[in-house]
Amino acid sequence: MNIISVSLDEDAGKWKEAIAKDKLTWTQVSNLKEMKDPIALQYNVTQIPTTYLLDSSGKIIAIDLYGDRLKSKIKELLVIK
User: Fold this and answer.
1) DSSP letters for 45-79
2) pLDDT on residue 65
3) Do residues 3 and 74 lie in contact, with contact meaning Cβ atoms separated by under 8 Å?
4) 4-78: what CATH class?
């Protein structure tokens, strides 16, 4: 499983400071185009934060899960069947 964060920032310096401050260790990407980011447009992101869980083929499994609901869904998906 991979975690990728897509930032909708415009300022590279502030974006990198936030990554360091929050100690984010997974992959971070940004085109620095705010809501005009191609990925945001592709997935119709209209608010921040927005979360998507995708399967290995890119199919959306869940949208906007946070906290315990997100953790629970990830654990469910990691169960080997």
Assistant:
1) --SSS--EEE-TTS-EEEES--HHHHHHHHHHHHS
2) 92
3) no
4) alpha beta
